[in-house]
Amino acid sequence: MDNVNQAISDTWSIYGTELSSRLLIGSALYPSPAIMQESIKQSQAEVVTVSLRRQSPESAGGQAFWQQIQSLGKKILPNTAGCHSIQEAVTLAQMSREIFDTDWIKLELVGDEYNLQPDPIDLVKATEILLNDGFKVLPYCTDDLVICRHLVELGCEVLMPWGAPIGTGKGLLNPYALSAIRHRFPQISLVVDAGIGLPSHAAQALELGYDAVLLNSAIAQAQDPVMMAKAFKSAIDAGRLGYLGGRMPEKDTANPSTPTLGMPFWHQM
Amino acid sequence: MKIAVVGSGLVGRLLAWQLSQHHQITLYDKDFKTAKHSAGFIAAAMLAPVAESVIASQLVVGLGQLSVKLWPNILSQLKQPVFYQQAGSLILAHAQDRGDLTSFCQRLKLQDGLTQVNSQQIAELEPQIQGRFHQGVWLENEAQIDNRALYQALLHALVNAGVQQIETTHADITDNRVYANGEQTDFDWVFDCRGLGAQVDLKKLRGVRGEVARVYAPEVKLNRPIRLLHPRYPIYIVPKPNHEYVIGATEIESDSDKAMTVRSALELLSAAYSVHSGFAEAQITSLDAGLRPSLPDNEPAIITDGKCIRINSLYRHGYLLAPAVIAHALNLFNQLSEQQTRYFYQAEQLSESHFSQLTGHFEGK
Asked: Taking a contact as any Cβ pair under 8 Å apart, which residues of chain A between 209 and 268 contact chain B?
């Protein structure tokens, strides 16, 4: 039991800030702000992402809504969702630094309008500009190892590769690529961002050794978002313990743990 | 009795008109004639309790079902005709958004009059968009209103009923007192229908921005509202009289009422074009942005404050909720003022549980 508690209380970090919850949760698409607040509470997430792009941040248009998020006392991770160019993303990052008084930025640069796939090339360029400007950048990227390497070389301490395109809920489409990133960057905090649909998908990400998952629609668009938030909390704990517990080796043939005495010899061939 | 109604948006207008049949009414607003800041004037005025049940609570769905029953009776009492149509609505998705249609169906809290439709059935309902869509859902009981005609008809009825109109940019309310244009007036009762203007008294009230396009499209003939599912939010196309179509609406958590953005205009108009290419040559008559007054649970509320009754937070459901919420507010008013005046509803149509939810949780608001 002690081991279990110890495992759940182990921490990871975003640029030196220690966190114990391994869920980062989004604040969009809930049926109401009241349900959003309750879902975030039940998820026990410590970090909440906030999108500013369409809310007229220049005139603090989303103030009333942001206050609802800030009143939860969580760490705010502003994002640049909806930005298509480097300049847009940089300007929005600077605005959000002032509004939320944080140097964290989830950098999201849309490369394809339809599935919101990140633009890997401009992402690297914008990351460099923002890191030089003193931001702690959390880039939302694809699962391309080489792009990840460029981002790490620039100084990113956190990477957020996708599980699947935003809002699809398909789960981890390429566990092999995600695993490769984990093995190559053991010192980097890795977060699966986007594409999670079910608690089991989140558990799988943690089992692969990812430090955390970031999700929004899977909870906000569930039939009962508050219940789904609890489910994700449990799944993420399970996935983390599963990783720490160390999986048994996978084999191609069954290997009975007790001798099959009762089985006729011609079946044991 | 001498009653003030503060705010002449959808709720204020409808309420003042009903009250004016039995009481002496003073109506305050900043702009009676154009009503261009009123969410109810900008809206598409759909009565879609089933489609909205995807996001709306049981309370909103239940009140919506009552409103759909009450509207025809309300409209029949108005002297000026107001277009009302109950031809259902059609929910469609392009092939690549099929998943959104499945998700929509799974999340419905109400299934009344629902039929899954294929290409052929879609073509029968809407011949002009034949071949463009292969799956959809027809919700046959849903309705819609010409809201701009309604605003005019209600204003006309208010004038005929001798309602005093006071134009003021700002009105404060304390108990049964209204302060406006530097004057203080006492009433027997005050109804606060200011929408977002009530933020001074309801601190948790916020605006949820919505943007809507109106076009004149003589080449297009759609028989009923169409809701097109989109990965981010549903876009509806609502046919009004005289070839006018309302295309909306964005939903953005922002209090900014600046003019519509280019992105929103592109999204709305390209969605309409993807449903019917006849929209290419339509004339854009207006691009409007407005704010939906909403409390944190996005549910309507009736709040009593001494001799002031506040009605607020109809959020994106003004037409779906107004008659039902006003019926409950008038019922409460009858109780508080110990009267038994007959208004546009039957007492047995009202539900105890809806009433307690509407009036119940003041503290949170």
From this structure: 221, 223
pLDDT in tens, B188-247: 999 999 999 999 999 999 999 999 999 999 999 999 999 999 766 789 999 999 999 999
Asked if the Cβ–Cβ distance from A35 to B253 is below 8 Å, we say no
Task: Please say if the pLDDT value at position B313 is more than 70.
Answer: yes
How far A17 CA lies from chain B's nearest CA (Å)? 29
Fold of B89-140+207-294: D-Amino Acid Oxidase; Chain A, domain 2 (3.30.9)
Q: What is the spatial distance between Cα A75 and Cα B5, in angstroms, rounded to a whole number?
A: 43
Contact check, Cβ <8 Å, B254/A32: no
The mean predicted confidence, pLDDT, of chain B is 93
pLDDT above 80 (res B103): yes
In this predicted structure, the answer to whether residue B290 has a pLDDT above a threshold of 80 is: yes
Closest chain B residue to A165, measured at CA = B231
Nearest to B206 among A65, A221, A223 (CB): A65
pLDDT grade, residue A1 (50/70/90)? very low
What's the pLDDT at B112? 87
| Sign of the dihedral defined by the CA atoms of residues A138, A143, A147, A149, in that order | positive
Residues of chain B contacting residue A34, judged by C-beta atoms under 8 Å apart: 296-298
CATH of domain A3-267: 3.20.20.70
Say if the Cβ atoms of B298 and A34 lie within 8 Å. yes
Of B56, B231, B254, the CB nearest to A61: B254
Catalytic entry in A41, A74, A75, A106: A106
Please state the CATH superfamily assignment of the domain spanning residues B2-49+147-204+298-361 in this structure.
Answer: FAD/NAD(P)-binding domain (3.50.50.60)
Sorted by where each begins, the domain ranges of chain A are 3-267
The pLDDT score that the predictor gives to residue B297 is 92
